[in-house]
């Protein structure tokens, strides 16, 4: 290897060898990446990269040579397994520069023995620019986003534009936004990688926003965000003279978009993926959901970060990766335009009725390959024969499905749009690909073997020659055995010698003397064998090699032709892929509606919000799995000019939060164009959705639970309007009782008088129910419970009126608080109630102290009466409420209930 001198062997060397100098230079140009430095069959990493990678990948760290008096750390991964290692590094948030050998080592040698193989970085692998299926999640979009800022003046605030692209599918979008709305937009996009000019990182707030929005935030030099050259750079990327054909964009939007293409160029080192022209998203057309509400409602993932337990997981019945991605995109940005929503609902309606057609389409869709991602790989010259086959398969499916749709007389604008897109799929390309490609295909084009027999006569000839010669060689073994009289003579092949004749060493004498030595040329002597060749064998070998080489060249040229034709048809392919995804979403939502008993919501321009028999889409499924059933509840907070505020009181654990969330989720479902879990639903389209539920502190930002709650409440009071829908859960509980009550009180008044939005407000402050007498649109509602032998039984039914008490102590008892504590709490409560809360402290002074305190010091604390009770207590101790997802919490409750039942039995 000409690379022997990459690492200096001289233990005292402090001067880089030429090859080391090459490494150092390439590394210096990519300081923020781990450098995968190709050496033969390995990617090697040196110095700090080696230390980082060996730790991250659990591979051995070795040393080779010295530089500047220090050992050089080294580790490597084999090229054939590099994807797996890349995937792990990317998942851990690293970026990798892949540096390849750009010439044959033999070429380098020609320039002199000291010369180094030419190497270059061919690609930067970063989280937001992935294209390989094994590096990507098939069911998730992989967005790269760029944020551009226009500094405000004294009279104007800062303005922002965000561009985001999924390089694996080509989707490319833009939106303008404000500083206040930026976090919401980024939370919606969930960028896998986020780019911003390094100057923006001086702003603490922005830096935090970026960090919260993406696991990989990349500061870039200003040049990437140069407004003056943005338009030109975009036009160049899309090879158009002017961007006018794509629509009119603001300078700021162009700046963000140009940063994306510049970064794509940088990471792909000049190869260009087929990005769609950027399309503007009008944020006014979407239901706005701020980052905190989005997280609280657990739309696409739970607060713990998992997909399971989220709304998306509960409603996703899609059968293709592209369908799953589209559904997630729609859930991230529900619509706010009743007409567009109606179009989508029409399609769901149609497929709900057409059960046979739906089943047939879904069966077909389930096998449809991911065309968009295959197309990107083909465009970047990273594609293999199976990518071309995927496109052929996708196009054929599109034609078949279009036929199926038309036959069934599918109507409505969404179905028409889908059918049109599918019909426009380039059938002739599919036919061409199918004709050329074999049925069984290798992953890589490198070794050939993918073009169908009979497609090209010259290829067939070359292959025949190659194969015939192989047969002739096989036949030679017989001939040579006869000529030499050595029955055990074999013709064999290996990578070093090529074809050779092998005999046992005891025939050495005969083979190397007259007359056999005239025919057999000695090649190699091993301990157990002697090897020879013949002129005939070499000639045949040469013929095989040249025929194989010719066959491979023909196959590669066929591949190049097919790839070119495929890339040329890129727009139509992508459209067909989009429509397949849309069909998957429409049919899967129909499937969901059928399986879960959802109904079509009426969505219009009114300010109505009337749900009859509504259910929580996630809790309902979880309860069913556990054999329970969900109690449906109605909600009516609409009005002609302003919304109502339902003040929901009720015991702990009664189902208040569930009720609040279920109504927000029903609104979201309706506005993505899905049927909803209810008996009926009429929703005047919601423009903004706010949710202040659950409490989590944001210690990273130095904010306490109460502070977070107040910040989120402030956002609602400052922004909600009559068209908004707001759910607020237990505002003010994180502070002293009277402070909390006063804040809740004033908040309700403000919502009622100023915001006038449709609101659900859950609280434990029963004092607030008095507000309904003063504020005409405040309605009291409560969750019904029954008391039975001192315990509380939850009925989960929302009824008009207010709760008379909290039953907190009963719930605490259910949860397994030690009996002395429960008894003491009961006594305190009785006293507090007697005094009406007045003079509480002095009153408590009069109350006999907690009985435990008066025990003799040595007396053991009352032992749990039975092991089941001990287990229950241990289970409670093990709970960390702040770390539980709703699902886990639910499971915990069931577990505790089961343990509790055990105690009952034991006491029998
Ligand atoms: N409508 C319902 N039908 C059946 N079960 C329900 C219903 N609503 C809630 N539940 C069950 O009750 C549990 C508690 O509900 P939830 O958290 O909404 O109560 P909460 O009143 O908000 O309690 P807290 O005041 O303690 O926060 C849920 O996890 C769920 O299992």
TrEMBL record:
Gene assigned in the entry: mutS
What is the annotated role of this protein in its UniProt record?
A: This protein is involved in the repair of mismatches in DNA. It is possible that it carries out the mismatch recognition step. This protein has a weak ATPase activity.
Its taxonomic path starts at: Bacteria, Pseudomonadati, Pseudomonadota, Alphaproteobacteria, Hyphomicrobiales
Q: Where does ATP bind?
A: 650-657
Q: What is this protein called?
A: DNA mismatch repair protein MutS
Look up the record and report any one GO term of the cellular component aspect.
cytosol
* Alphabetical list of InterPro entries matching this protein: DNA_mismatch_repair_MutS (IPR005748), DNA_mismatch_repair_MutS-lik_N (IPR007695), DNA_mismatch_repair_MutS/MSH (IPR017261), DNA_mismatch_repair_MutS_C (IPR000432), DNA_mismatch_repair_MutS_clamp (IPR007861), DNA_mismatch_repair_MutS_core (IPR007696), DNA_mismatch_repair_MutS_N (IPR016151), DNA_mismatch_repair_MutS_sf (IPR036187)
Q: Kindly indicate whether the keyword Chloroplast belongs to this entry.
A: no
Domain named DNA mismatch repair proteins mutS family: residues: 724-740
Which family does this protein fall into? Belongs to the DNA mismatch repair MutS family.
CDD domains with a match to the protein in the record:
ABC_MutS1 (cd03284)
Tell me the SMART domains matching this sequence.
MUTSac, MUTSd
């Amino acid at each position: 290897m000409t690379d022997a001198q990459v690492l200096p062997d001289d233990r005292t060397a402090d001067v880089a060898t030429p090859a080391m100098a090459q490494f150092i230079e390439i590394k210096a140009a990519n300081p923020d990446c781990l450098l995968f430095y190709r050496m033969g069959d390995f990617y090697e990493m040196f110095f700090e990269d080696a230390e980082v990678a060996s730790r991250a990948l659990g591979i051995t760290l070795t040393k080779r040579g010295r530089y500047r008096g220090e050992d050089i750390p080294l580790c490597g991964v084999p090229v054939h397994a590099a994807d797996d290692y890349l995937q792990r590094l990317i998942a851990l948030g690293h970026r990798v520069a892949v540096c390849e050998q750009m010439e044959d080592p033999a070429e380098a040698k020609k320039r002199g023995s000291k010369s180094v193989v030419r190497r270059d970085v061919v690609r930067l692998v970063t989280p937001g620019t992935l294209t390989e299926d094994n590096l990507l999640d098939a069911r998730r979009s992989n967005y790269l986003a760029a944020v551009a800022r226009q500094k405000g003046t004294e009279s104007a605030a800062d303005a922002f534009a965000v561009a985001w692209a999924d390089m694996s599918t080509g989707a490319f979008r833009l939106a303008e936004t404000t500083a206040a709305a930026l976090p919401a937009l980024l939370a919606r996009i969930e960028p896998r990688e986020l780019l911003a000019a390094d100057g923006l990182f001086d702003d603490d707030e922005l830096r935090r926003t970026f960090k919260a929005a993406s696991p990989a935030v990349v500061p870039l030099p200003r040049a990437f965000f140069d407004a003056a050259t943005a338009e030109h750079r975009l036009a160049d990327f899309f090879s158009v003279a002017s961007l006018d054909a794509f629509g009119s964009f603001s300078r700021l939007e162009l700046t963000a978009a140009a940063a994306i293409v510049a970064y794509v160029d940088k990471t792909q080192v000049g190869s260009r993926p087929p990005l769609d022209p950027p399309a503007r998203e009008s944020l006014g057309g979407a239901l706005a959901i701020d980052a905190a509400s989005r997280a609280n409602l657990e739309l696409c993932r739970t607060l713990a970060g998992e997909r399971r337990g989220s709304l998306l997981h509960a409603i996703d019945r899609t059968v293709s990766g592209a369908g799953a991605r589209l559904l997630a995109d729609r859930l991230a940005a529900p619509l706010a335009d009743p007409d567009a929503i109606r179009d989508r609902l029409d399609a769901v309606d149609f497929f709900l009725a057409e059960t046979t057609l739906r089943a047939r389409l879904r069966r077909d869709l389930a096998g449809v390959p991911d065309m968009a991602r295959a197309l990107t790989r083909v465009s970047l010259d990273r594609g293999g024969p199976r990518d071309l086959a995927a496109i052929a398969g996708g196009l054929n499916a599109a034609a078949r499905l279009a036929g199926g749709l038309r036959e069934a007389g599918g109507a409505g604008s969404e179905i028409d749009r889908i059918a049109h897109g599918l019909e426009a799929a380039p059938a002739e390309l599919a036919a061409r690909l199918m004709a050329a490609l074999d049925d069984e295909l290798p992953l890589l084009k490198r070794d050939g073997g993918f073009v169908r027999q009979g497609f090209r006569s010259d290829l067939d000839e070359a292959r025949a020659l190659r194969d015939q010669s192989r047969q002739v060689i096989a036949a030679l073994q017989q001939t040579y055995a006869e000529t030499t009289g050595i029955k055990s003579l074999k013709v064999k092949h290996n990578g070093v010698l090529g074809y050779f004749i092998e005999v046992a060493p005891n025939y050495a004498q005969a083979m190397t003397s007259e007359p056999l030595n005239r025919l057999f040329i000695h090649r190699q002597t091993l301990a157990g064998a002697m090897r020879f060749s013949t002129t005939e064998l070499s000639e045949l070998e040469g013929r095989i090699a040249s025929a194989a080489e010719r066959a491979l060249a023909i196959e590669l040229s066929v591949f190049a032709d097919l790839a070119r034709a495929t890339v040329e048809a890129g727009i139509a392919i992508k459209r067909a892929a989009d429509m397949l995804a849309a069909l998957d979403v429409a049919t899967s939502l129909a499937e969901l509606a059928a399986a879960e008993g959802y109904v079509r919501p009426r969505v219009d321009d009114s300010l109505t919000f009337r749900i009859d028999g509504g259910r929580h889409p996630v809790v309902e499924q979880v309860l069913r799995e556990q054999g329970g059933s969900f109690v449906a509840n109605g909600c009516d907070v609409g009005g002609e000019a302003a919304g109502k505020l339902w003040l929901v009181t009720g015991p702990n654990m009664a189902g208040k939060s569930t009720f609040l969330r279920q109504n927000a989720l029903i609104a979201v479902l309706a506005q993505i164009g899905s049927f909803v879990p209810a008996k009926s639903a009429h929703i005047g389209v919601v423009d903004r959705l706010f949710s202040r539920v659950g409490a989590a502190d944001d210690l990273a930002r130095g904010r306490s639970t109460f502070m977070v709650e107040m910040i989120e409440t402030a956002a609602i009071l400052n922004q909600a309007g009559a068209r908004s829908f707001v759910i607020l859960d237990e505002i003010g509980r994180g502070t002293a009782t009277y402070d909390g009550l006063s804040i809740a009180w004033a908040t309700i008044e403000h919502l009622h008088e100023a915001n006038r939005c449709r609101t659900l407000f859950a609280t434990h402050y029963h004092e607030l129910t008095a507000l309904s007498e003063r504020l005409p649109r405040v309605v009291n509602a409560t969750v019904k419970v029954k008391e039975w032998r001192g315990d509380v039984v939850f009925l989960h039914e929302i009824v008009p009126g207010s709760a008379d008490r909290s039953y907190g102590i009963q719930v605490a008892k259910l949860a397994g608080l030690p009996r002395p504590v429960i008894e003491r709490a009961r006594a305190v409560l009785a006293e507090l109630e007697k005094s009406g809360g007045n003079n509480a402290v002095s009153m408590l002074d009069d109350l006999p102290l907690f009985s435990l305190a008066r025990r003799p010091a040595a007396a053991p604390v009352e032992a749990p009466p039975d092991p089941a009770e001990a287990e229950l207590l241990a289970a409670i101790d093990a709970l960390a409420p702040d770390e539980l997802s709703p699902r886990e919490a639910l499971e915990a409750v069931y577990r505790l209930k089961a343990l509790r039942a055990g105690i009952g039995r034991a006491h029998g």
